[in-house]
Amino acid sequence: MLRCFVMPELPEVETVRRGLAKTIVGKTIAGFTCDTKKMMNRPLSFYQKTLKGLKVLALDRRAKMIIIRLSKEWNILVHLKMTGQLVYCGDHQSVVGGHPIKEGFEKDPNRFTHATFTFTDKSHLFFNDVRKFGWLRLFRGDELIKVLDHDLGPEPLEENYTLELFQNALKRRPNNRIKQFLMDNKNVVGIGNIYSDEICYFARVRPDRRVKALKESEIKLLFKGIKHILAEAIKYEGTSISDYVNAMGEAGAYTKKLRVYGRYDEKCFKCGGVVKRLKIGGRTSSFCPRCQK
Description:
This protein is of the alpha+beta class and 293 residues long. Helix content is 27%, strand content 23%. It has two domains: 10-149, MutM-like, N-terminal (N-terminal domain of MutM-like DNA repair proteins, Alpha-Beta Barrel); 163-287, Helicase, Ruva Protein, domain 3 (Orthogonal Bundle), CATH 1.10.8.
């Protein structure tokens, strides 16, 4: 079972995508229900009529969103937001990806289940959300392209995301704090509070410095850190601040690899100094004053 993730960022969403892809790709939708109108971009009746009989072809990801690719060029775009959770139940197995629900999740569906996909083999995919911030939006292929291209920057782990693209984006935002720059999806997608702290630590720069103050060597380290930290976090199936095991029931998370995030007032692993925290744009940031300048 996979029950994980506070504030999911790119590595967590990618882990959810991979886990669910193993279970629902190839299945055919027999029915759909949803009790929360704001989670949908079309009337429920349209969802039900359109989705019935469609086959799940693939699961992709863009930024922090999961794309469920369906037959006949239809797609479900899923955003877990802060408390969303996708749960597959069937074949005597349960795969759960998303924010941990500490009470009321003992069985599915439960009081936090707001949408249900039923497949022809009687298995189900449930969308649970305590605070109802998440959503499931239905788009045709051409509509989806416009949505995914709107105000979203490049994918940091794709080969075509180069140092030159990163440098050009920095030049457009000279007065941004480094942390704010990294967390802005217009500059690069998928980086949130956790990984922006870790990337800054990797590059040995303070998260509150201005972009225009960066040296060329620091820019190169930041770019390298983006690639390295995100890839490593995916390898370890994301960061869990709560109870976490992977889809095979095995313990393991990037939590053990964190160097500064959430470790304020603790000793820095590298220099032995004390990790500090500060507020940047309303977000708490952790850093080592000795290692990061």
